[in-house]
Amino acid sequence: MSASDRSNLRAVNLPADWSPTSWRERTALQLPTYPDQAELESALAELRHLPPLVTSWEILSLKQQLAEAQEGKRFLLQGGDCAESFDQCSSDVISNRLKVLLQMSLVLVHGMRKPVVRVGRFAGQYAKPRSADTETIDGVTLPSYRGDMVNGPAFTEVARKPDPRRMIKAHARSSMTMNFVRALIDGGFADLHHPEYWNLSWVGHSPLADEYRRMVNAIGDAVRFMETLSGAEVHNLNRVDFYTSHEALLLPYEESLTRQVPRHWGHFNLSTHYPWIGMRTAAVDGAHAEYFRGIRNPIALKVGPSVTPDQLLRTIDLLNPEDEPGRLTFIHRMGASTVADKLPPLLDAMRRDGRRVLWVCDPMHGNTESTSNGYKTRRFRNIRAEIEQSFELHAAAGTRLGGVHLELTGEDVTECLGGARELTESDLERAYRSTVDPRLNYEQALEVAMLIVRKQAQIAAPA
Ligand code: PEP
Ligand code: CO
């Protein structure tokens, strides 16, 4: 019996003094101030009655897959929008994002020769941390936009007022997204016999698309060969597992979807499979860490350049005291120019102390900059450099990079600079649509998958 099977059967360690509401005793950063408490309470009461978005069974099977990623037997691909928006909850946006993630995972599986854990940053990615509580334009000061789950992006008093009913709408939009993704996957959308289902209509000629098509043809030949040989259709190629994740920032919402279930001990956050703690709310004595310590989901934590080895060790003591495999992921997001300085001391301390987590690189959030024409952007070469350096730094430290965390979209956007099409600052005007952070478009995302494969092969077999 595996360790995770055993831990399902008994409450090995119900966290002491924890309840879904115990975070309320701690300092909670980045939460909105709702003007009307009665409205807030009534929205939360309604949420507590609504069905969950995921099940404990799915959560535990993801935890098992992450445990395998931690051991190097799988690779994690986690990606999606910086922030979902209510307006963008549409058939095209959802299916295009799924197409990109499926194409990327195909490239990774084919190149790395290991299964990929597929996790979307969607179906709940509606709350955002901000660097300031307010925003001032032309002498007018209003609350900052904190994601569609909290308020609206328009710079008006009405839009910016935190509205608790938005949590109900976020739950509904998340469940519509989940429902469509599940229906697509169950209906055979991810079938390897038909990778043409994942082609994006807007993609014209692209050198990367040619390379990708060659790979797809090779896989198609291999599938047909196996089928001819065995005289039967290979069936397990038409299904994949797809999991969801979001930053569990808005704790009142997360609390209302934290439930006990009949056949498993403990509490689960049933709003998503794999919640993470953002960099700004990662304090070990803060409300977010307190909430996360008690749920049984696999959880992740963003690790920025100011985190010390000691803080990281204390975080593990709190969030994974039993060293449960697959329980804890550290997503480092240092920036291409600082990762070589900041990451090795953390990796060394963890290895010295015999601590195990799944290490993942987010090459997006440490590489954000502003252009002279006022766009928030990221340069592809920095994203690439942070991923490549991360592989090398882990190899040198005797640890393992087990996945990537990316902001991307299947829409035809121009938000990040560079890549195969060499997007320049003047291209940003053409299709900059993100309300928060700049995302990789299809070509840039596929290029990331290809560079991961090349880098990993190089690390595995140094010249
Ligand atoms: C994000 O993932 O969108 C984000 C805000 O990241 P971080 O917490 O790492 O800054
Ligand atoms: Co972001």
TrEMBL record:
One of its GO terms (molecular function) is 3-deoxy-7-phosphoheptulonate synthase activity. The keyword Manganese applies. It catalyses: D-erythrose 4-phosphate + phosphoenolpyruvate + H2O = 7-phospho-2-dehydro-3-deoxy-D-arabino-heptonate + phosphate. Binds 1 divalent cation per subunit. The enzyme is active with manganese, cobalt or cadmium ions. This is Phospho-2-dehydro-3-deoxyheptonate aldolase. It comes from the Bacteria. It is an enzyme of class 2 (transferase). Phosphoenolpyruvate binds at R121, K302, R333. The keyword Manganese applies. PANTHER family: PHOSPHO-2-DEHYDRO-3-DEOXYHEPTONATE ALDOLASE, PHOSPHO-2-DEHYDRO-3-DEOXYHEPTONATE ALDOLASE 1, 2. Pfam families: DAHP_synth_2. It comes from Lysobacter enzymogenes. Its cofactor is Mn(2+); Co(2+); Cd(2+). Transmembrane segments: none annotated.
